[in-house]
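Team,

Forwarding the record for the chain on the shared tracking sheet. I've put the sequence and predicted structure together so nobody has to dig through attachments.
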Amino acid sequence: MGFLSKLGGTLIEPIHTFDRMLDEGASFLGALAAVALIFGILGGMAGMGIAKLAAAFFASTGPWLGGAVFPQAAVQLFFIFPIALGVLSFVCVLLFWLISSAISHFCARVVFGGEGSFAQVFTLQGYAATPFFLVAVGLALGWLNLFLLPYAAFLGLTAVFWTVLLLVIAVERSHRISFGRAFVSAFVAPLLVYLVLFTGLTWAAPLMWGGFWG
């Protein structure tokens, strides 16, 4: 299967597409490219928005804060923010993807006796992020007209629920377990781990901060 066929198949026929990718031994590099493309674009779009706000601010305050120096610096931000946020977005999502896949695989394999490998789960769950292209569409709509922001929010929620469904299907097809067990492995288990980590950090941070300054 080609790269675009995998992306389209993930959206339209995820079960058939995931099964075919497993049969063909699809590499995680394609999933990595998909994640880099989608979240690189999202981060870049967010960076462009921030750069525009910064440029408008510097342009309006330029006469009071140094004349033409600040507008010129603001122009340069159009190149810095999109690239920086594009890279940062990809790195953060890659880390989240790696950890979540590891948790999902561990739960499916150890708790429910699944048959799949980590590489299979990691690859399929990478393609499962494809619906997030809807978020980019929503951002574009918001830029065109602020009155379209409710539709952008709807597209964002749709992307989240669609992605969760695909994450579950990825574990189900990789490990050959029931949908319910796949849901626990792909969604409930990672969510619980993140909640425990967040709670632990929230509890420990004040103690560490107090000890550092004490």
